[in-house]
Amino acid sequence: MGVISSTAYNVSPLFIQPSEMREWLMDLVTHSFNTAITAADISAILGKSEHDILKSFLGGLLHDTGKLNIDHKILNANRPLTIKEKQQVSMHSTFGYLFLENIYNKDCLKDVIKIIKHHHDYDKECTDLEMIVQVADVFAALTETRPYRERFSKKEALCIIEKEISVDDSIIKALKSLCSGYHDE
Q1: Domains: count for the chain
Q2: 26: alpha, beta or left, given left = phi > 0 and alpha = psi -120 to 50?
Q3: I want to staple 95 with a disulfide (CB 3.0 to 4.6 A). Which of 24, 45, 69, 107 is the partner?
Q4: Could you tell me the pTM of the whole model?
């Protein structure tokens, strides 16, 4: 796309067939809701304030807004992505940030907008709320069926997260505590 600007926001989902759009949006909404609930639950277990719990929930709910700017055929590919496609997908955090920054640039939502921007920045120093949404996002993604793989059990997802994501131990413990109440299907 070249230089990214907040006015360069694509609405590609509007140009796909209604049946494809419905399935694509349902998957996106389901994943976002699962991420939001998990992030809010982890925040509550960690004793965060009600305000921070709400920010975690909203960050999780809106974290993939930028995927509306990515071709749904790339997002739903049941094959390995090309390098160019991976680069396009990796831009969804920035697209979501730019889009929402212009709409919701209010003090109370600035932390939520930062969560959206940094929810895939595993190699950077992030706030607790950003790390909570990172973990919730990965957990939701691993425990959902994708076009290219079956879902992982919650236990398998926890093991992957422990090995692959470097976040504060209290967040992992909170997720484990949350999962102890879940039953794997």
Answers
A1: 1
A2: alpha
A3: 69
A4: 0.65
pLDDT for residue 49: 96
CATH assignment of the domain containing 37: 1.10.3210.10
Domain assignment of residue 185, yes or no? no
Structure-block tokens of residue 135: 């973990």
d(CA 50, CA 44): 8
The angle at the Cα of 39, spanning 116 to 79, to the nearest 5 degrees, equals 65
Pair 133, 63: CB distance under 8 Å: yes
Instruction: Locate 18 and state its tokens.
Output: 């209604």
Per-residue pLDDT reduced to its tens digit, 96-111: 888 777 766 666 577 8
